[in-house]
Amino acid sequence: MSRLTIQGLSKAFGDVVAVHQVNLDVAEGEFVSLLGPSGCGKTTTLRCVAGLETPTTGRICFGDRDVTRLPPEKRLIGMVFQSYALFPHMTVAQNIGFGLDMRGVHGSEASRRIADVVEMVQLSGLDARYPRELSGGQQQRVALARALVIEPAMLLLDEPLANLDARLREEMRFFIRSLQQRLGITTLYVTHDQSESMIMSNRVVVMFGGCIHQIGSAVTSRDPMVIRPVLAVSSPAISRNVVDLPQPDGPSSATNSRSCTSSETLLRASTSRPRGGR
Asked: Contact at 8 Å (CB) between 241 and 218?
C-alpha cells in the first residue's frame, strides 16, 4: 500500500495536449475516481501512473519514491483493463498466475497465492476453466485477481465495468469497493459513469480538456464546497459536494486549478510547452 503524488503532470502527443498540469494526491488506502467524458485525459493520466505512457513534464511518486521514468514492471502496480486482456489459451489459474511467473514466483508459493486470490474474488471451483467458459462478470473477476495476486502497492482500473450489462455492473461496483476496503489498497479508478464514481469512491476528480476542474467527496466533505458544476458530466448529487478549484497564482501551485475551457486553448498553450510524440 502506498500513497500517490502527481505533480505538474502533462502529456502531449505531437501538437495535441492530452493532459496539462495535473496535480493530485491520493492517500494510502484511498479510492479515488477520475470522472469525465471521453477524451478528457483521465485514461492518459492513469497510463502515466502505470508507466505505460511517459509524461512530457511532471513527476509521479509512490510514497517518497519517484517512479516517473520507471518501466511498468518495476512500479509494483496491479492494473485492470476495460477489455479484461485475458489469455484465451490459459485457464483461470494460469491467467491469474501469469504475473507471478513473470516475477519468478513459482511452486508452492505461487499455488498458495493463486488459491488465496481465487477464493477472495469468489471464483472457487472455476480455476480450471478457460475465459470462453466464463460470464462477463467472472472474466472481470479473473482480471481483478490477476492484478491483486502480485500484491501490488497500488491498484489501477481503467473503466473495468464498461463491457458489463447493467445488473452485473451494479454487482461488480459493490464487489470491487468492498474488496478494496478489505485490502486497504490505494486505488485510482477511471470512469465516465457518474453513479459509479459516487458509489465507489472516497473522492471524485472531475476532468475535462486535459485538466482537473473539481475535486471532492461524493458523499460528505469537510472542505468548503461551491455549488457550481463546471461540466455537464457532473450530476447535481456530485456538485453538492465537490470543490470548484480556485485559480492558482502560478504554475507551481500545489492544487491543479487551471481553467481549460476548450481544446483550442490547450492547443495554443502547447506551442509554448515541451511536446511529446507517439
From this structure: yes
- End-to-end CA, the chain: 32
Burial (CB count <10 Å: 0-12, 13-18, 19+), residue 277? exposed
Classify 147 as helix, strand or coil. helix
Please give the Cα distance from 111 to 119 (Å, whole number).
12
Secondary structure letter of residue 110 according to DSSP: H
Distances (CA, A) of 20 to 62, 227, 256: 20, 25, 9
How far does Cα 26 stand from its chain's mean position? 11
* pLDDT band, very low/low/confident/very high, at 1 (cuts 50, 70, 90): low
Pairing between strand 203-208 and 65-66? unpaired
Residue appearing with cell numbers 470512469: 191
204-249 pLDDT tens trace = 999 999 999 999 886 644 443 333 444 444 444 444 444 444 434 4
Q: What is the pLDDT of residue 8?
A: 96
**Residue where a domain stops, chosen among 151, 177, 207:** 151
> Whole-structure pTM over 0.85, yes or no?
no
Residues 174 and 221 in one domain: yes
Instruction: Report the alpha-carbon distance of residue 146 to residue 156 in Å, rounded.
Output: 12
The answer to whether 154 touches 67, Cβ cutoff 8 Å, is no
Q: What is the CATH number of the domain that holds 218?
A: 3.40.50.300
Structural domains counted in the chain: 2
Half-sphere exposure for 54 (CA within 13 Å, toward CB): 8
Structural domain span for residue 222? 4-76+156-270
pLDDT in tens, 171-194: 888 889 988 998 899 999 999 988
- Rounded to the nearest 10 degrees, what angle do helices 107-120 and 92-102 cross at? 130
% residues pLDDT > 70 (the chain):
78
Q: Are 204 and 24 a contacting pair, CB within 8 Å?
A: no
